[in-house]
Every structure is written in structure tokens, then in C-alpha cells.
TrEMBL record:
It comes from the Bacteria. InterPro entries: SpdB. This is Mobile element transfer protein. It comes from Kitasatospora nipponensis.
């Protein structure tokens, strides 16, 4: 059974949450995920600034 992801350093930029976590191999990863209903945007990045830029430039396709 894989270990659960434990996000830390979570911030919210508009409807998008940016968090840092460790993947299964122990590497630090950063994710950006939109919390708007029916949006479905989420992406993993190797650097925190990249995840924050993705969060600031994200526009939900569904209104």
C-alpha cells in the first residue's frame, strides 16, 4: 500500500491551491490544483515558483 501524500506549506491563489509534498521516492514536489467545481485542473512541478505561476495564470474553462 502506498504512503499517503501529506501536503505541507499550502497556500491559496484565487481558486487554486499550491502545496509541497514528497513523492514515493522521497523527492520534493509541488502541486497546483484548482478547487472550483467541475474544473479538474491539477499539475505537479519540480519547483515552487513554477507551481505558483501556474496558479496565478490559471483560468477555469467552465463558468
Amino acid at each position: 500500500m502506498p504512503r499517503p501524500i501529506r501536503p505541507r506549506n499550502v497556500i491559496r491563489i484565487g481558486p487554486v491551491q499550491v502545496a509541497t509534498y514528497y513523492d514515493a521516492r522521497g523527492r520534493e514536489k509541488h502541486t497546483a490544483a484548482c478547487t472550483a467545481p467541475r474544473c479538474g485542473f491539477s499539475a505537479d512541478y519540480n519547483s515552487r515558483p513554477a507551481a505558483e505561476i501556474a496558479a496565478t495564470t490559471h483560468h477555469c474553462p467552465i463558468r
